[in-house]
Amino acid sequence: MPGAFHSLRLLPLKRRRKCKRRRSRIRSKFSNPSSDRSFRLKTSAASLDIGRFVQPLGNLFLSSSPCANLRDAGLGALRPLPDDLLLDVLGLLPARDLAALSAASKALYVVAAHDPLWRAHVLAELGGAFDFAGSWRATYIGRRARLVPPRALKIRGFYSDYLFQSWLCANMEMRHEWLARDNIERRRGMSVERFIAEMEEPNRPVLLEGCIDSWPALQKWGRDYLLEVSAGKEFAVGPVSMTLDRYFRYADNVQEERPLYLFDAKFAEKVPEMGRDYEVPVYFREDLFSVLGEERPDYRWVIIGPAGSGSSFHVDPNSTSAWNAIIKGAKKWVMFPPEVVPPGVHPSADGAEVTSPVSIMEWFMNFYSACKTWEKRPIECVCRAGEVVFVPNGWWHLVINLEESIAITQNYVSRRNLLNVLDFLKKPNASELVSGTKDRVNLHDKFRGAIEAAHPGIINQLELEAQQKAAAKKKKASFWESAVDANNGGFKFSF
């Protein structure tokens, strides 16, 4: 077999007697509706091959008449590799070798059918010019007609928690307890002055109602309208560009753990009608990055995605604040303050990289319940059409679409956040941290110079106000902080 797999040797497979197994299935935590850990599957889940092939490993251990795991019997020399590493190895193979490998044994047929392996090949070879055929494997094979897919097999006895959980995350419904918590402040009709004093100054999230009711987009942005005004234009979808009609065909048929997300920063330039169909809510109209004109970093995006798509935990770029307005659909938000790193998220010490090794659904499965015992629990909400979420600078946030959704989001810099942004842009490793612009090295100097030219004295004024607030806060707390030990109720001396 040519290619990367050529140097790996498969050990001879021994014939094994078929194990006599009961037809009754074990009711594990994944299928028992009365369990606290139960999950309800989407109606389309049964149509996917991997769900028929793979069972959680606990089913093998708990079986009253267990037989050998088909995984171990059919992987040969690859058997010692854990499943995640095994898939990394298979990800090095050309598509033709991956297809040939799936004919080597039933176990390799299952592993080589892992759809993300084929997604990488489709996107690398076809870019956004593909017509999704229900799975990435079928999409690739359908486009490359010379590859004959292996015949459909009836496979039982393959146990893998890793593969099963990947399939489960792609095919389960959001649990009620994940959606029930809604503790964000909701405001309607508040003045700009109150928004600044009560939300922006203290850096607190808020859900705003009624502030985009006049947007034409709320009435116009159905599929037919968007397809008409954007005909022939391509939008950024993950690592590729796609026309909207192709993306909608993909979204209608996809069932995967990490669906592709349309997230385009140039939509208003590509389709001016879309830019005219909304206006910035009154609370966010002071945007000091605008002094840079065309050199400003990317700041606005149209976001479109099917149920299950979304953004895993991140902090918005360049220390900016943001607002996110829902035009169609609904989104679940989970937000942590800047000083609280979400469970399962691992930022580097310099902030240049953030590792979040799990998908959104996997985070809910494995980490959400842990937050119940935290002193600083996350801010959560479900945001629906016509509502706007304010995301203060530095806040970690995760967003998942509960249904097909369309939204507009913008990042901005107001005078309440100007000093934070300037500090961020002048960090020693700013060239690694800054995003959305070609000139990462000189952005701080350009921005500061443009601000001083457009708003003379504003930076010095804000720095003076910040010093005065810090001094007032220290003075206010100085007596009791120096006299009372809050931990034991006694007095202490401080000189």
From TrEMBL:
GO terms assigned for molecular function: cis-regulatory region sequence-specific DNA binding; metal ion binding; oxidoreductase activity
Assigned keywords, A-Z: Iron, Metal-binding, Nucleus, Oxidoreductase
Residue span(s) of domain F-box: 75-121
Location in the cell: Nucleus
Name this polypeptide is given: F-box protein
Domain (JmjC) ranges: 269-429
One Pfam family linked to the record: Cupin_8
Entry annotated with the keyword Iron: yes
UniProt lineage: Eukaryota, Viridiplantae, Streptophyta, Embryophyta, Tracheophyta
Family (UniProt): Belongs to the JARID1 histone demethylase family.
Major location category of this protein: nucleus
Cellular component GO terms, alphabetical: nucleus
